[in-house]
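Dear colleagues,

I hope this message finds you well. In preparation for our joint manuscript, I am sending the FAD-dependent oxidoreductase (Streptomyces roseolus) sequence together with its predicted structure, so that both groups work from identical material. I would be grateful if you could confirm receipt.
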Amino acid sequence: MPGGGAVGRRGPLPGGADAVYDVVVVGAGVVGCAIARALARYPLRVALVEAADDVGEGTSKANTAILHTGFDAAPGTLEAGLVRAGHRLLSGYAAEAGIPVEPVGALLVAWDEEQHAALPKLAAKAARNGHHATRIIDAAELRRREPHLGPGALAALAVPGESLICPWTTTLAYATQAVLSGVDLHLGCRVTDVVTGPGALHRLTTARGPLSARFLVNACGLHADRFDALLGVRDFTVTPRRGQLLVYDKAARDLVRHILLPVPGPLGKGVLVAPTVYGNVLLGPTAEDLDDRTATGTTAEGLAGLRDRGARIVPALVAEEVTAAYAGLRAATGQEDYRCVARPALRYVTVGGIRSTGLSASLALAEHVLGLLSECGLRTGPEGPLVPVRMPRIGEAFPRPYRDAAAVARDPAFGTVVCHCEHVTRGEVRDALASVVPPAALDGLRRRTRAGAGRCQGTHCRPALRALFEEYGKGAGAR
Ligand SMILES: Cc1cc2nc3c(=O)[nH]c(=O)nc-3n(C[C@H](O)[C@H](O)[C@H](O)COP(=O)(O)OP(=O)(O)OC[C@H]3O[C@@H](n4cnc5c(N)ncnc54)[C@H](O)[C@@H]3O)c2cc1C
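The corresponding structure tokens are as follows:
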């Protein structure tokens, strides 16, 4: 659609009560944004509706940032197939769209005889998931590949293809491309009620006024069960499973070369140590089943437990400085698989239970949802090209603007550093504030540029960033 879709986070919805969309996708996490982007290939009127005032404000902003191959998924599940396909699709898309990805590979480390004995079974499971390149390596090779590993590691399963990825840029790339290709993005727009007439339209009540949809997609993450209930559907209950993580300073980066995974247990993938695409090292996550869907705080107990685990995996790591701690909530549903359901009678698709692999699976999930919408009766019309996107370079392994002499010569704003910890320039901040999906606040600016994400956590650059927000962020409310 020429000119792109509307982006707004305040005031009445454009079109008011008469706004009728072919498809409304509710929830602009990585999953909803991927679905909206997939729908944007067709001549359809599509809206992406989000309660928060930015995209990726839920679980999608607080995860472990690994692009999984799906080697350890339960074979034959929907999740196994979609993570595997998603890894392939997102690896290709990341290169095209400028999403930072580093294919460092994983080492699944055995620390005792029981875990050692489990490695061949894990290799066989990987093969059943179509991943035939895993290899068991002995203690000597493991130590050559990871010299800072703690004492007592017996062997490891090497898993090529497991990669580091920037989760923030991924969600933003999907949202940006969706909007450029015609999708309306309604932020600050919680859906509070849905009235569905037989054969007619869904009428949605939102925080910004009413809108109508022929087909509806629930991509509400932690709230997918509550959204289902608005349509009278009661299939599952979401139990938030919290994952707390520690981010170590960039000085620790040389201590770790691969994603260091434990042999998985009943509560999931377990605690890992991994580099990040921003040049830090992550330790986490915990796995705690809670009742509170807003409990994204960290706890002294949780972080102390992580340090204990980290001290065993890479002892030198825990002596390094911690840059930040955060927590995310997985949308667990008591079933070790996704809960993706088409309900043709309601012209409604639920995309639920996307627990710990949704970032990796996102592009494949979106294609799967197109199929479910077709089962519901959606006729998309002919497929067309999406408007291409090229995202800002915020990964450490890629030339950053402050180091790019040609960029600085073209525009001196790329030579003026405003965030000294992360080397973020005035030009990058300015461009983020004027982007297709601009940030609503400093936290959103951090996810787009890394400004304020470093050692001082914004203590030094916050006033300058606020001033730039004032200067360039006037259009951040709406476009
Ligand atoms: C600790 C942790 C580590 C993880 N590590 C990885 C990893 O390494 N690799 C990987 O692939 N995956 C990982 N995951 C999983 C991944 O982060 C999730 O699967 C993914 O982010 C889920 O995205 P989503 O879009 O479904 O949900 P969310 O990102 O939560 O998005 C849902 C959105 O719906 C909105 N919403 C809800 N209700 C309404 C309503 N009524 N009206 C409007 N909007 C609404 C919310 O505001 C929210 O923005 C991890 C998760 C956690 C918690």
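For the figure legend, we might mention the following. The chain is about 30% helix and 25% strand. The domain at 102-163+239-332 is CATH 3.30.9.10 (D-Amino Acid Oxidase; Chain A, domain 2).

With kind regards,
E.M.
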